[in-house]
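Dear colleagues,

For the upcoming journal club I promised to circulate an example of a predicted protein-ligand complex. I picked one with magnesium ion because it came up in last month's discussion. The inputs are reproduced below in full, followed by the predicted structure.
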Amino acid sequence: MIGVDTAGIAEQLGNAADTATAIPQLAAETGLDVDGAYAVQTALLERRLDRGERLVGLKMGLTSKAKMAQVGVDEVIWGRLTDVMRVPDGGTVTVADYIHPRVEPEVAFLLDRLPEPGEALDSFGDAVRAVAPAIELIDSRYANFTFSLPDVIADNTSAAAFVVGPWSPVPDGLENLGVLLEIDGRVAQVGSTAAILGDPRRALDEGIRLAGRHGVRLREGWVFLAGAATAAVPLRPGAHVRAVVEKLGTTSLRAA
Ligand code: 0L1
Ligand code: MG
């Protein structure tokens, strides 16, 4: 991967997000591989930090078979969340600010005490202070929502916005909770938290391990999006979106 222009690719992806304009895929043409793609993701994050955004968490992507099949990629990936991406519970997003936004129901963790670098997680209860239902808004910067694995990693795993519902203490089991995604009061997707790597707690192990490979350590106080429990649904102007997770409650957003 000699001579890949990390900063130039990050600039193209950042501009695509800022102007809500789709761009062609970049990896095949530039020879970008997975490690190079995470370097582009870091450059994109630095671009956001330089303009005053704060890093507030980490998200897992493609943690379910439905999501992998939807986009034709079969590897778990991770991306960065900043404060500007967070929408208040019940808040409004503007569809025109995005290229082709989709929404998906997720489970969020509020992180607490995490293992030292290189160490595995030995107590989920120590690492997670609270859990909540969440909605992730994803928006690939690539035309037709089509990409290769390095392309989607470089594009910060399509992260665009997220909403987190009320936090609750970690319940006894998280591995098979019913999940609904409603649009305008109608059920659009039905799933189970089992779709998230068999158990969303596993997503945290994977997040620590995979981000650690790239020198990224999860932090106390961060939000961690464990992944979607169903396929994502296109977001249209005027829609009211609600995610319901058994035992955890609901969260919602409106689209203008
Ligand atoms: O959060 C996700 O699972 C999205 C990962 C990237 C693939 C996509 O844009 O659907
Ligand atoms: Mg997601």
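Two points we might discuss: The chain has one domain: 6-255. Residues 6 and 36 are 7 Å apart (CA to CA).

See you all on Thursday,
B. R.
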